[in-house]
Amino acid sequence: MGYRTALFDFDGTLADTKQCSIVATRKTFEHFGFQVPTDERIMAGMGIPLEVDLPKMIGRTFSERVLDEILDVFRNFYQESEQDTIRSFPHIPEVLSALKNSGVSIALVTSKSAAVAKRNVGQLQLGRWLDTMVCFGDSQTLRPKPAPDGVYAALKKLGDPSPDDSIMIGDAIYDVQMGQAAGIRTCAVTWGSGSDAELKAADPDYLLDRPEELETVILEAKSTSRTLHF
């Protein structure tokens, strides 16, 4: 018997948004005259809410008004690039369809705002398989990853299923740490922003290299073993 509840990160897990994030960040920094970070630094912040990571990349603190202005410019550049740069990873639609057909409840747990998450999910036509979404980007109460709040909120929306039957899937150590903090199983994936080495060091229950392996892990591979690398 596999897992009955699957919580997915979006960026780098279900969807390849790397290029969109890089382009929007570069343009935002150029717009304000900030030193443009490397692509590697931009990718390292994927999965962290923008309002937390952008000031760190810039190396300054800002008033709420100025930070909101910077975030608005970033979001505008991001939206401009979405249509041409965001794609589902291979096999993701098929995996989500198989999970739903098997009775698995599916939630999205993302650092995006609800508006952006809904727009991106709609663009990729993934919404038909999602039961609910938890979005940190516009929440005033949820602590960001790696705090367990996102998992708790998702499980509550799904009717409080057993933690033993639930799994968090993501491409960043923050996703793994969030799931661990909430007491559920975790699955790290290597096709996003996280490196194989850092994901292994986070000690997830599963470490996957190919999206099509998700179906086997979630539906069949429930195990007490640690870090099974498929």
Q: What can you tell me about this protein's structure?
A:
- By secondary structure, the chain is α/β, with parallel strands linked by helices.
- It folds into 2 domains: 5-16 and 87-229, HAD superfamily/HAD-like (Rossmann fold, 3-Layer(aba) Sandwich); 18-85, DNA polymerase, domain 1, CATH 1.10.150.
- It has 10 helices and 9 strands.
- The strands form 2 sheets. Strands 5-4-1-6-7-8-9 form a 7-stranded parallel sheet, with helices on both faces.
- The two termini are 18 Å apart.
Here the CATH topology of the largest domain equals Rossmann fold
- SSE topology string: EEHHHHEHEHEHEHEHEHE
SSE class: alpha/beta
Rg over CA atoms, rounded to whole Å, is: 17 Å
Flag low-confidence runs.
Answer: none
Number of helices: 10
Tally of discrete structural domains: 2
Topology of this structure?
Layout: E1 5-8, E2 15-16, H1 18-32, H2 39-44, H3 50-58, H4 64-85, E3 87-88, H5 92-101, E4 105-110, H6 114-124, E5 132-135, H7 149-157, E6 166-170, H8 173-182, E7 185-189, H9 196-201, E8 206-208, H10 213-220, E9 228-229
Parallel strand pairs: 1-4, 1-6, 4-5, 6-7, 7-8, 8-9
Antiparallel strand pairs: 2-3
Helix pairs in contact: 1-4, 5-10
Produce a short descriptive summary.
InterPro entries: HAD-like_hydrolase_sf, HAD-like_sf, HAD_2, HAD_sf, PGP-like_dom2. With 230 residues, the protein is an alpha/beta fold.
